[in-house]
Every structure is written in structure tokens, then in C-alpha cells.
Model the fold of this input.
Amino acid sequence: MEKLYYLVAQLPSFTVSDDANQKLPITTEYFRDLCTRFMLPAHAEQAQKLSLTPHLATAPTGSAFLDQWYEKERNLRLALAQVRALKMKKDAKDIPITSDGEVVMTARTATGMDSPLSAEQFLNEYRMSVLDKLAPLDQFCTDAVYNYGLRLMLAERMKKFSRDEGLASYHKIYDEILGEKK
Done:
């Protein structure tokens, strides 16, 4: 028997901030463990498979919420690939074209930003807004649990970004390209 009320009651609320030192109240591993204890096996298995990276091929998940999320994320990634290819004057004929205007505008805005960190923060904010729009009204359903898991994974990803580490990595790659290894 599925015990979603018990599961949802144990999921602490959190907000995503730019402060990398602020810890999240729960980890993805702990979230997945809770899902295995309180969800039906098929739903818990789907929670284990949650990913921020959708498969290129469309495959139904059994959840309308997840299908919409993966479709939006897939379209965003394809639009980003298209815009980046066009900016670099590369052939993009093998990249499927997305017809979602909101996604295309988001991709154009992100690729036009001066800083890669700013672009990533912008894209993550967009992804959070997509999850907000797709969130089910019933907070005690499986889709609400999936939404929580994706938000948590996105928040963990956002916490990994560091300006100093990014600059160090950039300079290392730049020096390697120029053949100036230190």
C-alpha cells in the first residue's frame, strides 16, 4: 500500500538561494530511500530513475507530469544546441528543431549572456519555473513527489556552481588550448 501522506510529511521544504554555503535539508539519496519505503514499487522505481537529463528518444514514463517535464527539458536542450550551432556557424541539420517559442527564447537569452555562470543560473531559474508551472495541485500524489525530487536534484546541481572554481577551470582549459601548461 502506498503511503504518500507519510512520505510527503517527511519531505522538508526548502528554497534555492545563491548561497552555496546554505545546506539543503535533505539529499537526493535520502529522498530516494524514503520513496522506496513509502511508495508502491513501480512508483518508487520511477522515483529512482528521476533525472535532470531526459533521454533523446521520447518514451512514456506512466506519469503525465514527468512526460511533460522531460519534453520541456528535451526541447530546451535541443534549442540550446541549435542556437549554439548557429552562433558557431556549424551545421545543425541533424539537431531536431523545437517549435516551443518559450524554450527557443530562453535558449537565445541564455546563449547571449556574457558569463557562463549567469547563463546556468538563468537556465536553472527557468527550469524551476517550469516545475512550478507543471506542479500538480494535489500535494499528496505521486507526481508531487516526483516534482519534489526534481526540484531537489536541480537545487543540488545549482549548489555545485562556484565562481572561483569556474574561473580556475576556465583558466586551466584556456592555458591547455594555448599550450601553456603549468
Notes: Residues 11 and 30 are 10 Å apart (CA to CA). Helices lie at 4-9, 28-38, 41-48, 64-87, 101-111, 116-134, 142-159, 163-178. The radius of gyration is 19 Å.
